[in-house]
Amino acid sequence: MTILRPALIWALTSGLVSSTAASQATITVGGVAAKPGEARSGFIVVAAGVDAGTEIPVTVINGTKPGPVLALIAGTHGSEVAPIIGLQRVRSRIVPTDLRGRLILVHVANLPSFLGRTVYYSPVDGKNLNRVYPGKVDGTVSERIAHAITTEVIDQADYVVDMHAGDGNEALRPYSYWSPLGLDARTDSVARELALAFGHDHVVVDTDRPKDLARSLYTQNTAQLRKKPSITTETGALGLPIESMVQRNYEGAIRLLRYLGMLGGPREMVTAPTYLVKTEVLRSPETGVWHARVEPGHTVAQNAVIGVLTDYFGTVIAEIKAPFAGEVLYVVGTPAMSKGEPVGMVGATGQ
Ligand SMILES: [Zn+2]
Q1: Which residues surround ligand 1, an ion (CB under 5 A)?
Q2: 128 CA distance to ligand 1 centroid (A)?
Q3: For the segment 179-230, what is each residue's pLDDT rounded down to a tens digit?
Q4: What is the CA(345)–ligand 1 centre distance, in A?
Q5: Cα 77 to averaged position of ligand 1 atoms, centre (Å)
Q6: CA 202 to CA 107: how far, in whole Å?
């Protein structure tokens, strides 16, 4: 509670707390309805269709004064767990009477992947939830989850943050994705500010996302195309809720709430960001056993060896080299490797 004390003082001294301050409407997300001044948790039900149904655990915190709607989404990839634990911390510490506007927490977007402990893909339909947006009401379960999040969460939000981490197999240094699409100047510039408010000093600039509303593919991109400023954050690694990464997710959420004026307290922005305008995801040319030779955050020269792939017996069958000089953002840290899968990502500040 300590971190919210200044917000409470701010709210009290600015007259925001009042017994009659219920000046905004009830908000309903799936089966969860919260009146002004209430925090409620429950589920968006994803009904059975061509395959089994699932549910999406959400919390809705409705403030007592008007303000924007911020949606924080964790667990799009179920083994990216630091954001999931970070949002539990947010839920336990945000008091509705401290809040302007409404906060939607999606605790675990992809419950089949979380409970099945899979990386990248759903254990039910084999699809990557972050490649099937805006989803389909009559599709497979990943598509139905995407449709539910698009209609229940993104459509009701003003700002959307999709909170990822290194997946269960990925070692990663924290960074954020900012995707200026060049379609709406306000959306692009506010999204950049969200990235700086969240707190990661490394920002990947991706101008290559689809511009077709019907094939938006990514959570973040679905929001951006609807003129809702949005970022993707990467905070955590290797399927572990490491305390420092859980806390960075929590603090990122608080920093965003302060930036948006939804909580009192100082607005902090990253003042010297590193914009990575050139990035490449390196992929494995064969199936085999992966041996990383670098760690996240390492700087590498062009052609530096990122790692080697061996056959199952230990004979080297491929070397993966950096395509240009830059920094390692993530690298696969576990041995299992299939042809075509990512082995890591390198970013650089210049073209
Ligand atoms: Zn992810």
Answers
A1: 77, 80, 164
A2: 9
A3: 999 999 999 999 999 999 999 999 999 998 999 999 999 999 999 999 999 9
A4: 13
A5: 5
A6: 25
Span 265-301, pLDDT tens digits: 999 999 999 999 999 999 999 999 999 999 999 999 9
Residue 23: burial class (beta carbons within 10 Å; 0-12, 13-18, 19+): exposed
Q: Where do we find the tokens 């149904």?
A: 53
Region 250-263: what's the mean pLDDT? 98
Token couple for 64: 């007592």
- Cα of 218 from ligand 1 centre, angstroms: 10
Quote the pLDDT of residue 8. Answer: 38
Give the DSSP H/E element, type plus range, for residue 144.
helix 141-148
Residue 2: how many other CB atoms lie within 10 Å: 6
Going by the DSSP 8-state scheme, the letter that residue 217 receives in this structure is B
C-alpha 316 to ligand 1 mean position (Å):
29
Give me ligand 1 centre to Cα 6, in Å. Answer: 33
107 vs 79: CA distance, rounded Å: 13
Mean pLDDT score across all residues of the chain: 93
Which residue is listed with tokens 């307290």?
265
Which of 1-15, 19-33, 179-193 is most confident?
179-193
Residue-level pLDDT at 24 = 75
Residue closest to 299 by CA, chosen among 279, 278, 325: 325
Q: Which helix (H) or strand (E) holds 244?
A: helix 243-259
- Quickly list DSSP for 147-173: HHIIIIIGGG-SEEEEEE---TTEEE-
The count of other CB atoms within 10 Å of the CB of residue 47 is 11
Ligand 1 centroid from CA 52, angstroms: 23
